[in-house]
Amino acid sequence: MSITIEKNKAERKPGLRTEEMVLNMGPQHPSTHGVLRLELELEGEIIINAIPHIGYLHRCFEKHAEAMNYSQVIPYTDRMDYLASMYNEFGYAIAVEKLLGIQVPERVEYIRVIMGELQRIASHLVALGTYAVDIGAFTPFLFCFRDREKILSLFEQTCGARLLYNYIWVGGLSHDLHPDFVNQTNEFIKYFRPKIKELNDLLTKNKIFIDRTANVGVLPLDVAINYGISGPNLRGSGFKWDIRKDDPYSVYNKFDFDIPVGEGLMGKVGDCWDRYYVRILEMEESLKIIEQAVNNLPEGDVTSAIPKRIKPPVGQVYSRVENPRGELGYFIISDGSINPFRVKVKGPSFVHLGVLNEILKGHMIADVIAILGSIDIVLGEVDR
Amino acid sequence: MIYDFFFKLTGSNFLADVIQSLLPLFIFILPFALFAVLFERKVSAHMQDRLGPMRVGYHGILQTIADILKLIQKEDIIPTLADKPLFNIAPVLVFAGSYAAFAAIPFSSAFIGSNIDLGVIFIIAASGFVVAGILMAGWSSNNKYSLLGAMRSAAQIISYEIPTVLVVLSIIMITGTTNLLTLSEMQTGHFWNWMIFGGPQMGLAKFIFIPIMIINFVIIYISTLAEVNRTPFDIPEAESELVSGYHTEYSGMKFAMFFLSEYANMFAVSAIVTALFLGGYQSPVGYLGNLFGAHWLIPIEQFFWFTAKGIFFVFVQMWLRWTLPRLRVDQLMALCWKYLIPIAFVNLLIIGLITVL
Fold this sequence. Notes:
Shape of chain B: globular
Strand content of chain B: under 5%
CATH topology of the domain at 69-311 in chain A: Cytochrome-c3 Hydrogenase, chain B
Order of helices and strands of chain A: HEEEHHHHHEEHHHHHHEEEHHHH
Largest sheet of chain B: 2 strands, antiparallel
Distance between the termini of chain A: 25 Å
Helix content of chain A: 40-55%
Strand content of chain A: 5-15%
Order of helices and strands of chain B: HHHHEEHHHHHHHHH
Number of strands of chain A: 8
Oligomer: heterodimer
């Protein structure tokens, strides 16, 4: 800390004595998306250094996992990235199944994909809505949450919970789908397509919004790759990388969908607007996947492959999935007992937070909010 | 008219003056602030597919009164390290500044708080007074966010006063008066006599004035929007950046004073725009009072038209607020200094030339 201040002072022109203001942003600030604390060194309104302090939401997930058996870990994975709970379970289930070497029925895979993609839309809606609030537009936020409610209702109907589902189990699912699920999902798709256009009209193509986000917080591709950025943030920088396509898991190779990338339509490639727009386009692609999956849903039993007792052989596995925020990896070591010896999570939000200082320097305070929002972190997963 | 009435009633010049000046405050502004807060909540709710307050009274019409009662009961918190005298004076200054502007606003030909000859200039000066209160609030709170908000607010209000004054100057050049009552009287007749349509004179000049006046109207509307810190210029209190700007540390009735003065300001600037460009209290189509021969009806109709025009502009402000995102500080300044002020200057020059010729 003090070293950086000294360094910055030395770089400044001699003569005029200036002093930078240290502004503490968070953990109770309304726009830090949870309990992130940023220590900003300001010169006027210009940021010269930003240090993120994390850990306010640390709940020892990884240590807890060592004291529980494999299926008891699932509710805890829900609580990491609480906006994408389905996908956390999905990733964990795949990892443990890989460790056990079991095959799950086709129907289970299809339902998992449907749930995962619905979750992706719900998560992106939160990301886009809160981003609108950060920029100062309140109405799109409520529109996004209104649409997200519809997805949550679908989840509630399926498994009884709206936020933390415990639905995707190792080897299967906790319940089969509601008989009316297919109908309602089709209705939702029909309802939601025009809403994306509405969001575009209201926010995406708004001149003020473009002024605030285009050419702001540019994340160059080489920096993104060096920092290990993945998901929409990496694609926003213009690199076509999606684990669903490049390292397919589950049944993703059966569906036809595109990977949208940032093209710098409004400014430089990799600016906030690109990251924002990639998420909008991804929602449309997710709708495509859901539409194909729901209408080709195979018959079968969703609970038949659930093992009575999960006791994997000694070994280790790393498995990764494309979470709404990026690459979510689970590294599990088994010592042959019913409890995992070690569960290590590679979460996208934690990785993305690392690049924040790199892109914040030289921007104004108002841009901190715009950039932080466009990176779309969930503190529950950063701290775990 | 009202002055004569009070003079007869009290028999004293001084008392009649005082009562007449206080009248807009009690008859109009306090009820208006209560109404506007509810109006804003209902407008925002319906724009966002919600219902808004529904519990207190029919469709929540008593909600603001309940809120004010709650705020009065709240503990008055002063931060330990705050500069106490300044901290206490600041809300009063802001409140007084924004309410003083109402004294010179002509609600109808019979109802004006104080008919002073420098009406327009007085209103601009009184609303400039608010800056001092805001700076005091930001400084004395001893909070970095408040200070940033106050500095932004001061920079913004002072910058945007320039295009406002330039537009007002151009109006003064055409009409040759700064008295708002005279200004409103000049725009009598039908709506084509309003200043936005070139004013009362006829002939070639009027048609040259029309486009210039429409541009001037847009400029003054944008800059008044910035002066009252409404979206897209609500940078001083940008809740996602600065928590809530200069009034972050205030609670209870002091907070309510900032809050009410914000809504009073919204109407004050709408009233200026109305009085300068849209005929003030003049009806666009003529009066029922003339039709029926009941001349006592005319001032009441005028009051109705003035309030209706003012509330319409308040509604537009709300509409913008719940639709648009917010600009960044430098973009806001760029808009003012690079676009509004040069255009306003050119307009002033053209109008000056025409009036001289």
